[in-house]
Amino acid sequence: MVDIKKAKRMLKISYYGVDLIQLIIGTALMAAGTAFFMLPNKLSTGGFSGIATIFYYLFNVNMGVTILILNIPLFVIACFKLGLNFLSKAIIGTVSLSIFIDLFIQFRSYN
């Protein structure tokens, strides 16, 4: 006999895993676009990534760290307003974007 609670729990875990994989692939694609196309052409995106790009060119500040620092107030607000599920995905997305951007910038500078 199939345990319904166990099946629901496994299904929920698999949905969260698929969301996590999609989130990481999406942030890797955005970071690649930023590092390989936007930065070499001195273009900027919108939002905190755009502000981090401007700081990168004006002050030679690490772009990934700037994105993380700028997002800290939003994480605090999201914790109270949107819940822990959204907060966990937002933190994973922001941290992975920051890591991927820094990695791709380093990869680009070696070529």
Protein architecture, described:
It is a single chain. Helix content is 85%, strand content 0%. It is elongated and about 60 Å long. The chain is mainly alpha-helical. The chain contains four helices and no strands. Helix 1 runs parallel beside helix 4. It has one domain.
Main attributes of the structure:
111 residues; mainly alpha; 0% strand; elongated
Sheet-strand content, in percent, reads under 5%
Instruction: Name the helix and strand elements from N-terminus to C-terminus, one letter apiece.
Output: HHHH
Q: List the domain count as a whole number.
A: 1
Number of separate helices: 4
Overall body shape: elongated
What about the largest sheet?
none
Total beta strand runs: 0
Query: Averaged pLDDT, please?
Result: 88
Structure class? mainly alpha
Question: How large, in whole angstroms, is the Cα Rg?
Answer: 17 Å
Low-confidence stretches: none
Query: Helix coverage percent of residues?
Result: over 70%
**Alpha carbon gap, first and last residue:** 59 Å
